[in-house]
Amino acid sequence: MRNNRKRTGKPMAEPAPAPVTQMSVHPSLSYVIPTEFVDLPSQGIFYPEDHPLHNKDCIEIKYMTAKEEDILSSQSMLEKGVAIKRLLESIVVDQEVDVDTLLTCDVDAILISARASAYGSEYKASVICSNCFETVNFSYNLNNKTHGGLFQDKKFLKENNIEFDQEKRRFNIVLPSSKLKVGVRLLSNSDDEKYQLSEAQKNNSITFTLSSIVVSVQDLEEQDVVQSFINAMPAQDSRFLRNTYLKLAPLVQLTHLVKCGNCGHEDRREVPLNAGFFWPE
Ligand SMILES: [Zn+2]
Asked: Angle at CA 242, nearest 5°, toward 236 and 244?
């Protein structure tokens, strides 16, 4: 019943725990809800020492049941952030894990695995051909997902003046224009919820994103110091920081070589996630 996926040994992480949880449905039934281990793109290295996922390279989740389908289809929770949070609370086995603290990359990995286990790994998506602008439909196998991010690439870190602060579990990045050092953390699920609910995404999405990831300037962590600097950050620094974050941060990559049936153009494209992801036809 269990699907404990093979993991490669990663030096930074502790060995995976044996599956011990028995999600018993009822004492009279022998049926047990299956669980699986999901590899964490973050490898657990950004969670502080007192976090249950500190240095853990995987997390145990249970398979989605009719209860989770209810969560996803409930009208009152259709706001994406709320539904996703309830879903995570329901499927993450370790109740010590506060799902708000899960990094967005790890949430993505959990959701993709949960979807593949519940409805199969085939996912139907479409993109617009970049050559002839026709719609191209294709099938993507969710098991082909890969993990990316240069957060452990020593060469990249050195070339971009980035250091990983072991104690605070975040990056120190020296900005090219102002030469100031900023502390940068990874986005978590609660940031994603705030973003979904906020008006900022329409008007001030750049400063909103920067406020979410920058936690110190020259080692000063006071909110007003950090916010004042963000509002006055040179555009060159802002751009460098956002681009660097995108390259640096761990992420789940879903890319597919899409061939256009109309003009034959081939392109490696990011697979867009749409409503069919959790509500397949
Ligand atoms: Zn085309």
From this structure: 95
The predicted pLDDT at position 201 comes to: 58
CA 261 to ligand 1 centroid distance, Å = 7
Q: Between β-strands 32-33 and 23-24, what pairing exists: parallel, antiparallel or unpaired?
A: antiparallel
Q: Does the interface predicted TM-score (ipTM) exceed 0.95?
A: yes
**Domains in the chain, CATH or no CATH each:** 1-119 (no CATH), 150-249 (3.30.2220)
Pairing of strands 251-253, 146-148: antiparallel
For the chain, residues with pLDDT lower than 70 are 1-23, 75-80, 195-203, 275-276, 281
204, two tokens: 């001030």
Measured in angstroms, how far is the CA atom of residue 236 from the centroid of ligand 1? Answer: 36
Taking residue 79's Cβ as centre, other Cβ atoms within 10 Å add up to 12
Whether 173 and 165 have beta carbons less than 8 Å apart is answered as no
From ligand 1's centre to the CA of 146, what distance in Å? Answer: 26
- Residues composing the chain: 281
